[in-house]
Structure formats: C-alpha cells, structure tokens
C-alpha cells in the first residue's frame, strides 16, 4: 500500500495518516514521510519526543545531494544522485515504522520551496521502490509530485471534513491530481458522525469516491493517536477505511 494523504490544513491529514501507518505497521514495515512543514507526524505516531528531537530533516539532505552531484547551483537537482543511502541515514525507526521528516522550507528571500520539493520528488522515487507500505503526510498542494512518483503511489487520500473550505480544497486537489495523471483519488470524510454530514460530503464531492468516514472523536491524544477511548474509536473507523482501500486501490 503506497498512499499519499492530502487535504486542507486542520482537516485531519496527520491524524488519518498516523492511524493508517499504525494499522499497516501491525502487519509489516511502513515508511512514513512527514512532508508537512508543521512536522507532527512523529508525535501522532506515538514516537517518544526524546527520539524525535534527534531526527535530521531531509531539508538538510539537499546540501548533501548537491555536494554529491558535484555542483553548487543551477540544475543540480536534475542530476538525480543516489539517495538510497541517505534515506538510511536520515530515517528514525520505531518497531515496524520508519519515519522521514522533510523539514521546514524557508520560503522567504531567495530560499524557494522548489529545491526541497525537488528533493522530495527524488526521495519519493526511491521510496516507492522499497518493499513495504509507504505513507506520505503532505501539505495541501500536490506540487511535491511529478508524474513518475504520482503513478507509483496506489492512491491519493484527500481528507475532508464537512465544511465548505475543506470541500473546496478537496475539489482543487482532485483537479491538480487529474493534471498530474493521477486517477486513484479517494476522499476520507473526517469528523463526520451524522448521516447529514456524510451526505453533505458525498454530494459536495460529486464523482470523487468517498472511501470511508471517521467520526468526530473528541479528545484524541496529540501523542499516539490510538490512545484512549477516542483513539480506539478512530482505530475502528480507519480499519474500515483501510479495508475499503485494499479492495479498491
Ligand atoms: N476525527 C476526529 N475527531 C476529533 N478530533 C480530530 C479528528 N481528526 C482530527 N482531529 C483533531 O483535529 C486537529 C487537527 O488534526 P490534524 O490531523 O493535525 O490535521 P492536519 O494534519 O490536516 O492539519 C488535531 O488536534 C486532531 O487531534
Ligand atoms: Mg498535519
């Protein structure tokens, strides 16, 4: 299962991504990539904070990649240097889960997100080739992705909640995905407990298939999303989502 999770900020991408990662990790190796500059996937996975402080963000990898490419600027990222061994160096492992953190992007001044996106693209090309599952917790946009990587991911999950901004963002993501040639795009309706909320989501998304719903489970823990009663309810909902994905993706 190779999945990328997208959606508007605050809709529950990290929660869904962490939950699916934990479920998949019960059966085998999972590579989780935190590509959101807010970097909280590690916490959501329940990895102890003292381990997370040690993690080296992949944004530091770009200097290494540049050095390996033997170039100091310009089109250095087109040279596609080996990144497989860098992945080993940058990831942290917790049981069956390997975590890579992209790091923050300096969007000010001359620092532009393109070089980091370029690093992520290269990285994803390597990661999709690894055995085991892959989950990417993305920023709202799909600018991280090129056609090659997009084709290698089984499915894009777009998390929505029953609010107009989240639903509008989902439609925009589907359009972008279409432009990248990605057809396997599924919505996960989050914080949708009532039939009314589920219907609202289905109707707003039109042709986009809704792969499942997660209820509004107040009191989810920020560290370890399956903790407590709310976490167990989340787990049950996401297990159903995963089951649906297995048959459709
Ligand atoms: N189904 C849910 N029920 C209750 N709270 C949720 C649910 N999904 C997410 N949350 C909470 O909403 C907040 C934002 O979720 P998060 O997964 O970080 O969103 P995103 O990654 O899209 O920004 C977090 O505090 C999270 O615990
Ligand atoms: Mg997030």
Give keywords.
alpha/beta, binds adenosine-5'-diphosphate, 249 residues, binds magnesium ion, single chain
Task: Set out the fold topology.
Layout: E1 2-6, H1 13-25, E2 30-34, H2 41-44, H3 49-52, H4 61-69, H5 84-90, E3 92-94, E4 97-101, H6 113-127, E5 133-137, H7 147-152, E6 155-160, H8 164-179, E7 185-189, H9 195-205, E8 210-213, H10 228-248
Parallel strand pairs: 1-5, 1-6, 2-4, 2-5, 6-7, 7-8
Antiparallel strand pairs: 3-4
Helix pairs in contact: 1-10
The structure holds adenosine-5'-diphosphate and magnesium ion.
Adenosine-5'-diphosphate (ADP) is lined by residues 7, 9-15, 190-191, 214, 216-218, 220.
Describe the structure.
The protein is α/β, with parallel strands linked by helices and 249 residues long. It is built from 10 helices and 8 strands. The chain is globular. The termini are close together. Mean pLDDT is 84; it is low at 71-80 and 106-111. Magnesium ion binds at residues 13-14, 36, 38, 40, 137.
Summarize this, please?
With 249 residues, the protein is of the alpha/beta class. It has helices at 13-25, 41-44, 49-52, 61-69, 84-90, 113-127, 147-152, 164-179, 195-205, 228-248, and strands at residues 2-6, 30-34, 92-94, 97-101, 133-137, 155-160, 185-189, 210-213. Adenosine-5'-diphosphate binds next to helix 1.
